[in-house]
Amino acid sequence: MIAPPARRGTGHAPCHHGEILQGVFLDATGRRCAGLVTLPMTGMGSRAEFTRRPGTPPERLTVLPGDRTKAARAAALTVAECARRRREPPCGGELRLTGDIPVGLGMGSSTSDVIAVVRAVADSYGVRLAPDTVARLAVRAELACDPLMLDARPALFAQREGRVLEVLGPRLPPLVVVGCALGGGAPVDTLALPVRTYDEGDVRAFERLRALLRRAVATGDAALLGQVASASARRGQQLLCHPEFDTLTGIGRRLGAVGVQIAHSGAVAGLLLDPATPGLRHRIRGCVRALDSNGIATTRVFTTFPPVPPFPPFPTTQEFPSGPAHCGGHRPARPDTPRRPARLPAL
């Protein structure tokens, strides 16, 4: 008997640069739920290739690299979902993952892996999955996920439930982000962080920040967005306690940044600049020099808008001698964390 032919699918997912806002919010019914708004960043991501083997048992699923347990769960869940839709028996296959997202910096590396896998498996079945279905599968695979399956519109996303609480508007205000890695770029073990409890005062504070961010998006107000991001970052410090945080905010004030943002589950951070500010190039260089002189590894400069001449073509991976990036490797915090070095492309 001739075995059915193998069927191959591919998928890709981006990363992000930490959060603009993260906390506890009220949904449409008034129920509290954790939520976040991420800062999108192009240029890096995860890629998956899934070769489906019809006629093989579904447990015969191999994954390379072999330590990607979240990706393996995502593949099995997506096979079951797509097979049900196609009214076929689930089967096994081979999954291969590649990518360049640093681990443990709070850039959504595990979610990017999972979403790339979901898309690759769906592609092998010729099935197009809606974003809410991708989110549901991602949450089942890793308990909480980032909104990397959505389009570019800024959204408040309930990461533990895989649903959008609010689309804040069509696009973020124009920003230039000077990225850096705190703590030497060492991964953060988010599962080892203490669990934060929130009272009614915290929820009211987060809802005020949500309203301010909604206004910033509606009016394209970079300065107001910077205020929101800085306030959220300060609250995140209650758990993360980055020793360089005060230095980072001081550099931002001195060089005219509208605010700072950090990953609330990692070490990546950024100085937020308004591109309409006079002397922008000089300010960017000043930020790089100031971060470097204070031992904070600069990583890359990117924007929240498509660059147009004469603005420099960010994001950039061009090497710049005065902007060293962290280049050490670190063992991941957990066995199911993808084993990739914690480094970002140099500015």
Could you explain how this protein is built, in words?
This protein has 347 residues and is α+β, with helices and mostly antiparallel strands. It contains seven helices and ten strands. The chain has helices spanning 69-86, 109-125, 131-142, 200-219, 222-240, 245-254, 280-293; strands spanning 7-26, 32-53, 61-64, 92-99, 155-158, 163-167, 176-181, 259-262, 268-273, 297-303. Strand 3, helix 1 (69-86) and strand 4 (92-99) form a beta-alpha-beta unit. Helix 1 packs parallel to helix 2 and helix 1 packs across helix 3. The chain is globular. Residues 308-347 have low confidence and may be disordered.
Topology summary:
Layout: E1 7-26, E2 32-53, E3 61-64, H1 69-86, E4 92-99, H2 109-125, H3 131-142, E5 155-158, E6 163-167, E7 176-181, H4 200-219, H5 222-240, H6 245-254, E8 259-262, E9 268-273, H7 280-293, E10 297-303
Parallel strand pairs: 3-4
Antiparallel strand pairs: 1-2, 2-4, 5-6, 7-9, 7-10, 8-9
Spell out the helices and strands N to C: EEEHEHHEEEHHHEEHE
Form type:
globular
Structural class of the secondary structure composition?
alpha+beta
Regarding quaternary structure, what we see is: single chain
Q: Termini distance?
A: 57 Å
Average pLDDT number: 87
State the low-pLDDT regions, or none: 308-347
- Number of distinct helices: 7
How much beta, percentage-wise? Answer: 15-25%
Task: Strand order, main sheet: write it out.
Answer: 1-2-4-3
